[in-house]
Amino acid sequence: MSLPPLSTRSLRAHQFSGLAPGPRLIVTGAVHGNETAGTRGIERVLAEIEGGQMEIVRGCVTFVPVCNPLAYRHGRRMGERNLNRRLQPTATPQDFEDRIANVLCRWLAAHDALLDLHSFRSPGRPFVMRGPADNRGELEPFAHAQAEARLAAHAGPNRVVDGWMDTYADGVARRKARGLTPGAVHEDPSYGVGTTEYMRAVGGYGITLECGQHDDPAAPDVAHHAIRQTLALLGIAELPLAPPAQPFECLALAEVVDRHAEGDRFAKTWTSFDALAEGELIAWRADGSEVRAPQAGYIVFPDLGALPGHEWFYLAQASTRPL
To answer: Which of 99, 181, 256, 272 has the fewest Cβ atoms within 10 angstroms?
Structure first.
């Protein structure tokens, strides 16, 4: 099914409840407006439910095909700011994404599990981002790592990445140490809170599935498969559950590197998860100084369009956490 014309004055959800008790799942697409693989995957599942090919029998599922209708309408990543940063309710909304967050956060809090569907700019294969191990720390306390790992294992891809919040918080500390001016960079660790981080903060769990490159015709298939797998895993729909895509490659983000000035430039065209040798040249700063890999690993999320004072790329290592 195709979505009817979208309003930028409301947020649309589609909810189905089984008559037997069960878990509550929310599936989100187009948190970034140019990431439409999840939207297309959700549309296919909605058509299957409406057409009788799939039945919701237990618990409930809520689909939000387009979380950011302003960004989606214009085919761009953001409306007025990044919805997947500093995602939290506010009594004094300052922009479009604040107003969306006031609705979306309420919906997230009403569910047990989240499947958040995204895509990325450069070529590469799909991967899953999961949260921390169970812990009682201050940054991201969590108690559902096992359930989240099962969800990550069955989503489809065999590459799983963790370490987002710890790495982002370390980046904030470095920005503060450099004395960057307010407004030039986001200095609050809560700016690293997106959909899955908020979901964990309100007692649930969830994964981000990066379905592939934005325009990859196979990316909606990845989203569609993951939705059906999640419904099967949770018993919400009576569907066959495919086995996990083993062996898994588990990686952990280790460091975020910011772009400091307009003249900062990459030494080559990098793609997420390109391997790095220890000491390999990654980029040059505007003053001519070199940015090299501190140890062997991988580059993740290289952003040619990063603004000065914002995330430029991440470095990753093999994770010590098996799935």
So the answer is: 181
Rounded-to-integer distance, Cα 34 and Cα 118, Å: 9
Measure Cα distances from 206 to 49, 71, 106, 150 in Å. Answer: 23, 23, 16, 10
Cα–Cα distance for residue pair 247/6, rounded to 1 Å: 41
**Residue 298, token pair as written in the block:** 């991988």
Task: Give the start-to-end residue ranges of the domains of the chain.
Answer: 14-246, 252-318
Q: Which residues of 174-198 are buried (b: 16+ CB within 10 A; e: fewer)?
A: ebeeeebeeeebbbebbbbbbbbbb
Q: How many CB atoms lie within 10 A of CB 50?
A: 12
The percent of residues in the chain predicted with pLDDT above 70, rounded, is 95
Q: Which class is domain 14-246?
A: alpha beta
Positions of the chain with pLDDT lower than 70, given as ranges: 1-4, 178-189
Contact of 101 with 191, CB cutoff 8 Å: no
pLDDT at 122: 80
Residue 124: per-residue pLDDT: 87
Instruction: Provide the pLDDT for residue 184.
Output: 43
The pair of structure tokens assigned to 148 is 């989240």
Is 252-318 assigned to CATH 1.20.120.450? no
Residue with tokens 């990063």: 306
pTM: 0.93
Contact 71, 33 (CB under 8 A): yes
131 touches 148 (CB < 8 A): yes
Q: What does each C-alpha distance from 24 to 48, 70, 114, 210, 294 come to in angstroms?
A: 19, 27, 9, 22, 43
